[in-house]
Structure formats: C-alpha cells, structure tokens
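In response to reviewer comment 3 from the previous cycle, which asked for concrete evidence that the modeling workflow produces usable outputs, we include below a single protein chain processed end to end. The sequence was submitted unchanged, and the resulting structure tokens are shown without manual editing.
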Amino acid sequence: MATSQQSSTRQALFKRLVTVRVAVPVKGYAQIGQLVIEVTDLRVQFKVKKTTKKEPNTAEVVITNLNADRRAQLQQAGGKFILLAGYESTGVEQLFVGDVRNVAHVRDGADWNSTLHSGDGERAYRWARINQSFKGGTPVSDVVAKIVTSMGIAQGNLATVLAGLSGQYVNGIALQGSAQRELDTILRSQGYSWSIVDGALSVLKNDATLAGLIPEWSGDTGLVGSPEFGAAEKNKGPLVKAKHLLAPQVKPGGKIKLVSERFNGEIRVVVVDHTGDTEGGDWYTEVEGEPL
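The workflow returned the following structure tokens.
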C-alpha cells in the first residue's frame, strides 16, 4: 500500500530545473577552471549515458538561444561542463561532469541551438601517459596509486580499493604509455573493474556494488510502467530494465530496489540513461541491471 509520504513525493516531482555550467580550458585533466557561463533560464535538452565499463560515459546537451557572446565562449577547445538537474521541490543534483568534445551552433528558425558533446574524464582516458619504473618489492597498491595520480582525475573510492590489493612486484616493473591501459591491466589481474563517473575513479570488485543508500523505485515514487527483462549477458541471466522519473543519484555499479508486480527485488545497475527537456517530453532515468 502506498504511504502518504510516497504519494506526496511523486506529486512533488513536477517543476523541472536544470543548470549547465561551462568552464574555460585548463591544463590539469581534473581541474574545472574558471566559470565561463551558467545557464539556468533557457531551454535545455540532454541525453546522458553511464555504464560500468571503462570507456568514457557520454552526454549530449542542447541549449536554446544562448546569446552571441556566450556562443563564442563555448568555442574554446578543451573546456569542461557540469550538468545539474532536478525539481523545484528537491533542488538540482549533479547529473554529469565531462570534457567538452565539440560544440555546434545551428539556426532553427528564430532559435539558435547550441549542442555540446562530452565524455566523462575523456581527456585523461585518451591522453594521460605514464613513464615510470618501480624497484623490486614495490606493492601493487603503490603502482596503482601512481597511475591514477598520472591521470589527474579525482580519486573516488581509490583509498578503499588500495587496501584490498595484494602482492608486490618482486623484480620491479616499468610502465610506459597509456595510463588507462596500464591501470586496466593491473586491476583486471586483481579481479577489479573500473570506470570514471563524474570525473572521479570508480573501482569495484567484479560484480560488486557501490556502498551507500539504496533507492526504492515503485509506482508511488515515480516508476513508469513495469520492469522488463532484456537479453541475457554472457554467462549471466537476463538484465532487468526499468524506467523512472528523473533520478540523478543513480550511478552505475549502485543498487536499486524495485517494487512492482512483475519484479520485486534489488538489481545491480550496469547502464544508466538520463534524458530530459525543460520544456516537456522526456524527464526520465532508465536503467539496466542484474538481479541480485
């Protein structure tokens, strides 16, 4: 039975809010830099995809009717942007942080649409390099810490993960080349997977879940329709697909509790899609997850 609190929660999730902040380029991969523009009162449309895979998460944001000066400011290469979204009743929450890949300004009748494409931690993923030798007896955890430092991204849950890494390089090791490739090789050998989520490292033991609050999705909180079962992954059962009113706090690797007639239980989220338009239409979070 729905509680009055759950019903009022759903009722409150109506007036949409979006903030887009764009910063000038900086040398450091993780630094945000000086704020160039902040958009809060124009039409914004967005598509955000996050997964548990190491390849950068992506976002496409369309801002309508930026003035000529602001459009020119967005043309600076190598900038970063932050997308926040939510509701008048709850305020905005961070939905995405990423490096701007490219910007296109297109005239549509009387309007100008500015489209930003972005990858989360993409500059670090593509361009960060490490060229360092470690002497014999160096712990694996020390090498991993150095690689992450060379990438210049926020460390996320790295401190917890380092405590769980075992072994040392008896004869030493020399690393040269792509930092993300070296990180992937070492972590996979220890049974971990990793990704960059909102500019910070997220490392999980294979098939483990993030710690923290487990949101409950039901018809009373904003669950849309009934969960569905998708195609099975290799050596695993079918994924559960569910759709909810926009829920910025959901992250890949996290857990959600689904309450519905068709599926009632927890899932480990492996794919998150956020779509929104401040002038109506989409305002949803869709997930694919493994039943737990």
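The longest helix spans residues 140-151. We consider this sufficient to address the reviewer's concern, and the full set will be provided in the supplementary archive.
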